[in-house]
Specification:
about 130 residues; alpha+beta
Length: about 130
């Protein structure tokens, strides 16, 4: 894993310790990162809301469908749960939904060059978020 450049000019290599998440819960307001960072009324989209987004745009090979959507989605890639390393940056977009698939997995919107779909990934992956305001 590459070191991270910090604002104060130092570098550090993050310690990655979460390789699995096993909890039987959707994102609740008490632990929803959108609520915690942006305040009351902000939340992660549900899998149904992501499905509606998925059905509303036609993924393009040049990413114009995703980027030109109201959410400005981009292919940020993701972080592996075993070591936190970045994968598929510039190739795939992964966006968490707030609804779990099981105690170990959660629903996300996945898009690649030319197509997109709802997927069910292990909760310990590091994926992007988009926050909605109610």
């Amino acid at each position: 894993m590459l070191p991270t450049q910090c604002e104060n000019g130092t570098t550090e290599t993050p310690a990655w310790t979460i390789t699995s998440i096993n909890e039987n819960s959707d994102w609740l307001p008490a632990n929803d990162p959108c609520t915690l960072e942006l305040g009351s009324g902000w939340r992660i989209p549900t899998s149904t809301e992501w499905t509606n987004v998925n059905n509303s745009f036609v993924p393009q090979i040049d990413w114009s469908g995703e980027w030109n959507s109201a959410l400005k989605l981009h292919a940020a890639g993701g972080l592996y749960p075993n070591d936190g390393s970045l994968f598929n940056r510039g190739l795939n977009g992964y966006y968490w939904g707030s609804v779990q698939g099981s105690a170990l997995t959660s629903w996300d919107l996945l898009f690649l060059s030319g197509y997109s779909y709802m997927n069910n990934y292990t909760k310990a992956f590091g994926f992007s978020l988009r926050c909605l305001k109610d």
